[in-house]
Amino acid sequence: QVQLVESGGGSVQTGGSLRLSCVASGYTISGKCVAWFRQAPGKQREGVASIYTNDGSTKYSDSVKGRFTISQDNAKNTVYLQMNSLKPEDTAEYYCAAKSSCVLWYALQWFPLWGQGTQVSVSS
Fold first, then answer.
1. What pLDDT is recorded for position 19?
2. What sign does the CA torsion over 116, 54, 47, 64 have?
3. Distance from C-alpha of 70 to C-alpha of 80, rounded to nearest angstrom
């Protein structure tokens, strides 16, 4: 069964850190674009970061640039999102998604494969 499974979410205070994991099964992340999206209550799902696993090139949204880092471990078929200096506005359900290229990485409608999400809550 092809699936992406996220983990690592939780509750932290402002300024804290979390590391999210996205583990692929039945599917290899090698040569793919894997992205993290998030959706806060009442808001649209938005792209946070992406990585093209062929060359490790990354993209970030302006809201997380300098605070979040996306990385890959091809041997573990896993993509990570290290989140530092967390703010209350980072509170959301976080999803990973995968597709063949990172063109228009922020456009969620082009991602055919999604995980079930993991909740991140940041309190002030």
1. 98
2. positive
3. 6
